[in-house]
Amino acid sequence: MFKRMLGDTIYRLRKEKGMSQAELGELVGVSNKAVSKWETYEANPDITLLPLLAQSLGVTTDELLTDIKAEKGDPKPKETRVLGMQGTVIETPGEYEFISYKRTKKDLPYMHIHIGKQIQTINAKARGVIAIGNNAKGIISIGLFCIGIISLGMLSVGILAFGVFAVGLASIATIAFGGIAIGSISIGLVSFGGVSIGVLSYGAVSIGYYAHASSEKYAFGKYIFIR
């Protein structure tokens, strides 16, 4: 019970400080893996580290051990499962955050969800193999602003990108930029759209080395094809 409470407290205070596990570990003189074990209840910090740990987190040793601040109403992490992954969640009126226990060798969560519900939390960052949030970065990323191999968002960047504005090797969006671009306005090597610009372009208004359009007056290129 004590191990779980202390792990929750370390996690909460670290997040309040905006520190990564690696940054906290550097202040205390341990590895990020050690911090991860504290927060996932696998181990307790050595008793000799408690004063320095408390100082690094901006509390007294008593507050660290008894979680007085959490007792006063601050949100405490709760254990939960999301999409089959076990982890901790903190939810407040302003934001929701879930971090999976399972991590990569580089200490990246397999899933990180961080959604800001209010203007002051609009830039809530999510970093994970699967990242979902206002500002998401992961192999698979979903959110307002996204970077990932597969990216889905209002503004998305990735190998495969979908969004209102998308940049990618292959992109589908209202405004799309990419090797293959599909959108109302598309710019790419191969582009399809209302207004299409590319080496090979296909659209209502088409500009390219090979340009396909519905009317000759809307096609501009070395080779023009009218459909």
How is this structure best described in words?
- The chain is of the alpha/beta class.
- The chain folds into two domains: 2-71, 434 Repressor (Amino-terminal Domain) (Orthogonal Bundle), CATH 1.10.260.40; 78-226, no CATH class.
- It is built from six helices and seven strands.
- Strands 1, 2, 3, 4, 5, 6 and 7 form a seven-stranded mixed beta sheet that branches.
- A hairpin with a 3-residue loop joins strand 2 (85-91) and strand 3.
- The mean pLDDT is 84.
| Share of residues in strands | over 45%
Silhouette: elongated
**DSSP helix count?**
6
Strand segment count: 7
Tell me the major beta sheet.
7 strands, mixed
- SSE string: HHHHHHEEEEEEE
Secondary structure category: alpha/beta
Count of separate structural domains:
2
In round numbers, the mean pLDDT is 84
The rounded distance between the terminal residues' Cα atoms is: 72 Å
**What is the alpha-carbon Rg in Å?**
24 Å
Helix content: 10-25%
- Unreliable residue runs: none
